[in-house]
Write a structure and sequence with these properties.
The chain is an alpha+beta fold and 520 residues long. Helix content is 33%, strand content 23%. It has 14 helices and 26 strands. It has a 5-stranded mixed sheet, with helices on both faces. It has a 4-stranded mixed sheet with strand order 13-17-18-19. The protein is flat, with a radius of gyration of 35 Å.
Length: 520
């Protein structure tokens, strides 16, 4: 008979106390908010040290920093480093918005800490990252926090614009070469020794000295920028355009396109700007300032002449104008027109680029000319919009609109396609004969009028030929498809008629017709 022995459970080892830390943050360095973060630090000190099951691991606090990003928060980064070093088991924080307003940052950080075995507890929302529904609740509430941040940003922008409109100036830059901002007077006041540098800079420019030459002169004299650095051509270019030296100010030169990513871009007309005149004592008289701007335009026109497409092409995706880009590859010069946002820092655009020669060919097609005629283009085309699809919408004089859609039917490379559903459906308007399919020796598939072979009333037909892949692409365009669908074609199209000018007339079974216009 088997013997059974009872095994007594071992006495559980004394469980180690949890090492608990806390994180606090305020977004501004105001006296009231600094008092708030001080109160949070004091609260967490007492809370953690008053719990016998916890071991105090510190309180981490960031002040004057936004919650929309984590990379610039030193204390937050130190907290993560200590978690990764195994010094912390639990992190306490007041709310989700104190931890992060960016949903992506929040979830990535919480998941990373969870993998390390570190639990995060959000007191206000009563959520902890180790609970079953913790991540779901965090996703939902963090999205609210992110939208709240976006809403606060819009409210702040609205307030700033209202102050601009009412003439309340303020200053983001307290020190500009030649000026310092006086908070008591609420205006810029001249710094005499720096003002002399500014006057010298403008004087030498009017005397014909190039920007780099002025930089060299200033640097050789021992002059430096307000940051103590050598003068550079780009920064000098900005200075000679700054209206502050004529006693004026322009507000909202830049704006933030995303309050979460804090991406700031130059305002190229997307938002209104506000010009305030005679805000402070001018270093230059207006005549001198105006002469410098005219001289700059004269030099720019010599270096960067305008072209027929300049200011005519705009991107329908992001609203920016197209700009000319010249490049050189393997000794050959290439000229393209691209959306300007592709050249702006912090911006990107998915719109298509066009070579200069390609644009001229397209314009000739749309305007019905054999070759590009700059005079006709200037007189007839008001604006061109590059669509997201890659097509171009032409706005002509007289409110007429024409759309060029890139079907890529004129490419030199022929795709190898053989389509049976075109048999018996394509006919010639000129002689009435059907189109016949032929595969050439190089495996290209063409459709041509059979009247070209047998003649019609004694006259050989000269109707337009079409490659198989061309008919497929044009048919897909007529049917509103991105890719040609044989079944849809057979179900909807009764007949294709090749017109005398090479255009295609599609007759649907339902009775309607659509014409694809062939442009030479």
């Amino acid at each position: 008979m088997a013997k059974i022995k009872k095994i007594q459970p071992a006495v559980a080892a004394l469980e180690r106390r949890k090492r608990v830390a806390a994180y606090a943050r305020v977004s501004k360095d105001t006296e009231r908010l600094l008092h708030s973060v001080s109160a949070q630090v004091s609260y967490y000190n007492k809370l953690i040290q008053g719990n016998p099951e916890w071991e105090f691991a510190g309180v981490y606090a960031d002040t004057g920093l936004s919650g929309t990003g984590t990379q610039w928060r030193d204390e937050f980064q130190r907290l993560l480093a200590d978690c990764e070093a195994g010094k912390i088991d639990i992190v306490l924080t007041k709310s989700i918005s104190r931890f992060a307003r960016n949903t992506l940052d929040l979830l990535e950080t919480v998941r990373h800490l969870k993998e390390l075995g570190v639990e995060v507890r959000f007191e206000k929302e009563r959520i902890n990252s180790f609970s079953g529904d913790g991540e779901l609740m965090l996703s939902i509430l963090a999205s609210f926090a992110q939208e709240e941040s976006r809403s606060i940003s819009e409210n702040v922008k609205w307030g700033v614009r209202k102050r601009f409109q009412s003439g309340e100036i303020g200053a983001a830059n307290k020190h500009i070469l030649g000026y310092r901002y006086d908070d008591d007077l609420e205006q810029y006041v001249i710094i005499p020794e720096e003002a002399e540098i500014v006057r010298l800079m403008f004087q030498r420019y009017l005397e014909g000295v190039p920007l780099q030459g002025i930089c060299d002169e200033l640097n050789d004299k021992g002059y430096r920028t307000i940051n103590g650095k050598l003068f550079q051509e780009a920064s000098l270019n900005n200075l000679i355009h700054n209206e502050i030296y004529a006693g004026d100010l322009v507000r909202q030169k830049c704006y933030m396109i995303d309050p979460i990513k804090k991406t700031k871009v130059r305002n190229n007309g997307e938002l209104p700007q506000y010009r305030m005149t005679d805000c402070h004592e001018a270093i230059l008289d207006r005549e001198t300032y105006a002469r410098v701007q005219q001289e700059f335009e004269r030099r720019t026109a010599m270096l960067n002449p305008t072209y027929c497409f300049t200011k005519k092409i705009r991107c329908a995706v992001c609203g920016q104008p197209f700009t000319r880009k010249k490049g050189k590859q393997r000794g050959k010069v290439y000229v393209h027109w691209i959306c300007r946002s592709k050249k702006e820092p912090g911006q990107s655009c998915c719109s298509r680029n066009f070579s200069d020669s390609e644009l001229k060919r397209i314009c000739a097609e749309v305007l019905g000319t054999d070759t590009f005629d700059e005079g006709i283009f200037e007189n007839q085309v008001k604006q061109m919009l590059v669509l997201e699809s890659g097509g171009i919408e032409f706005h002509l004089v007289g409110r007429e609109t024409r759309v060029w859609q890139d079907l890529k039917i004129n490419q030199t490379y022929h795709e190898f396609t053989v389509t049976d559903c075109f048999q018996g459906k394509v006919f010639c308007r000129k002689c009435g004969h059907p189109y016949h399919r032929v595969i050439s020796a190089n495996k290209w598939t063409y459709w041509y009028c059979i009247g070209k072979k047998y003649g019609y009333k004694g006259v050989e037909c000269d109707a337009q030929n079409y490659a198989d892949f061309q008919l497929r692409r044009i048919s897909a365009f007529i049917l509103g498809q991105t890719e040609f669908d044989e079944a849809a074609f057979e179900q909807q199209i009764e007949k294709i008629t090749v017109l005398e000018d090479g255009s295609l007339e599609y007759k649907f079974y339902e009775g309607r017709t659509e014409i694809w216009q062939r442009r030479m």
